[in-house]
Amino acid sequence: MSEIYIDPKYKSILPLRETEKAIKEIKDYFEQTLAWNLNLQRVSAPLFVRKGSGINDDLNGIERKVTFQIKDDAESDAEVVFSLAKWKRMVLADYGFNVGEGLYTDMNAIRPDEDSLDNLHSIYVDQWDWERVISPQQRNLDFLKDVVQKIYNAVRETETHISKLYPAIKPILPKKIQFVHTEELLAMYPNLTPKQREDKIVAEYGAVFLIGIGGELADGTIHDGRAPDYDDWTTPTTEGFKGLNGDILLWYPILNKTFEISSMGIRVDKDAMLRQLAIRNASDRTKFDWHKRLVNGQLPLSIGGGIGQSRLCMFLLRKIHVGEVHASIWPDDILKKASNAGIKLL
Prior knowledge:
- By secondary structure, the protein is of the alpha+beta class.
- The protein has one domain (16-340): BirA Bifunctional Protein, domain 2.
- Helix content is 32%, strand content 21%.
- The strands form 2 sheets. The chain has an 8-stranded mixed sheet with strand order 1-5-6-11-10-9-8-7, sandwiched between helices.
- Strand 3 and strand 4 form a beta hairpin.
- The chain starts with 15 loop residues before the first helix and ends in a 6-residue tail after the last helix.
């Protein structure tokens, strides 16, 4: 259901054209900082891939993909990507990236089955997709936390940069990001929903990396869905929990709620992928070329994720709706409500 929140006191800090300049400034500064912090090289990425290749991200496995037939190739249909989670790992192998090296790219996607077009969600998705080759010894929670900290540092550096250019925008991010596992969160707030738990912990700390998303928790539920063939959400850790993935969550006072800017993690190895495919009754995916390459040891071990471009711009520019920083299609009721409040949706 489409519904947006409008604070009657809200007024955009920057006017429209200045907002467009600031968006460019944020994107340029952040991606350069991210690339430096993680040793990433920019590469070109596809908007669509061949249907049935196994390369596309399947999200929760039920969402429809935008598909079309290629006129000059009647034997093949194409589908617009949901994300480049698996494509990036393939490229690491095909382009010859080594341990400690990685890539990033601009990812643009269309997700017509988005559950709710609200302040944070759109059918258009843009993010920095990134992936880096790791060694077997780096498939652990400490390494994951180290990479998360480097990404968070890039976000904070960008916030500081923007606040200097636009003094009316005051920094709000805490110096450190806290690490919390979904099992710990469940134990702390057993009577709350997953989203309510997130709001509780993120409101307290300001910035949290929530670990272990996709795997079954102690009460038999999962915190949130994850595809079974990219993030590793079943490998046990030395801290007594399972999962080598998570989300970067920030507290956003403009909406008074949790604000997710990244989903990421150490990627599945052969054993983790086969285990997770079996859990999700999706073992038939091993027939796809991408999955065969992983099983046959032809893809490197890696860590990677996506960082929302419009999400980051919205947060740093203190906008109340994602439509203030990217263009999309919005239902008439949302357009009317925003217009009545003096908010221009692109």
